[in-house]
């Protein structure tokens, strides 16, 4: 939990090619609960941006702001409007010495709780929980939207299609990717994360269940706890039936990476239901760089585990799909998609990124 003396204001600048406004999603611990939204022109000055934020706060709120720089992996002073276009999280500490958590935030202009994001024309309703201090799993992150939109156009029967397949999501959080897989026609979807997220995940399943049941009467969508550090995974997870593993924005801090890689390795090599070929099991990962050290550790450990990593949508021919999936070029550079497979028993175990 963050200390009560810290007032954190989260500013997310959501841009689209059509709208002339930026949407500021503001969280302010200690001042109000949940999220508040403000619209400002895309060409707004830094003074106008700060004024819009402070209009939500009492006069006693601090006037100085710092913004998280994902490249430097640290907070830097917010001094220009240009920073807001490429960086997301702004902090207003009541006390300069107070500790804060540095996590960049999202850039898609969707009111997720209103169903503005759709998969195959169906609204995907996702609720978030703000200001709990419990962790990152109660918030929607950009990588989940990117992976959801990647799954949407995959032709049934293609290697990355989830239609008719069994899907498990690691670090599901709000469950957006798993629910998108459900709307893509997956037979079974298992959303996994730590226990603190599950109430919200189950709430989001319930929001979408009536329409999913009408579309796919035999489909199952459920949530369950899965701790990457656990030695034993419950048999109730039915991991032998998993075809596709998905994960988005699940690489945050270096201390979690070895356990994550070990979990990915275990799932890819989990004994399969008789009659299912091992070649059918793979992982699709949406990854945003948080630090070069974390990236280096992630891909090094995946390689050491004998897992192949292939970047997706990396050819010039993929440019139209990339343009349709991302709100801007900068996000396309920051959030990358990867396919991970077990090549332990194959000729080549090279990791290519």
Q: What would you say this structure looks like, in words?
A:
With 353 residues, the chain is of the alpha/beta class. It is built from nine helices and 15 strands. β9, α4 and β10 form a beta-alpha-beta unit. The longest helix is centred in the middle third of the chain and has 18 residues, at 198-215. The chain is globular and about 65 Å long.
Structure summary:
The protein has 353 residues and is an alpha/beta fold.
Features:
three-stranded antiparallel β-sheet; Ubiquitin-like (UB roll); alpha/beta; FAM86 N-terminal domain-containing protein; 15 strands; disordered N terminus; 353 residues; 2 domains; signal; Rossmann fold
SSE layout and pairings?
Elements lengths: L8 E6 L6 E8 L7 E6 L4 H9 L11 E4 L4 E4 L3 H6 L3 E2 L26 E2 L2 E2 L18 H10 L14 E5 L5 H8 L4 E6 L4 H18 L4 E6 L18 E5 L8 H12 L13 E7 L3 H13 L2 E5 L7 H7 L3 H6 E8 L11
Parallel strand pairs: 9-10, 9-12, 10-11, 12-13
Antiparallel strand pairs: 1-2, 2-3, 4-5, 4-6, 7-8, 13-15, 14-15
Helix pairs in contact: 3-4, 4-5, 6-7
Keywords: Signal
Protein name: FAM86 N-terminal domain-containing protein
InterPro entries: Methyltransf_16, SAM-dependent_MTases_sf
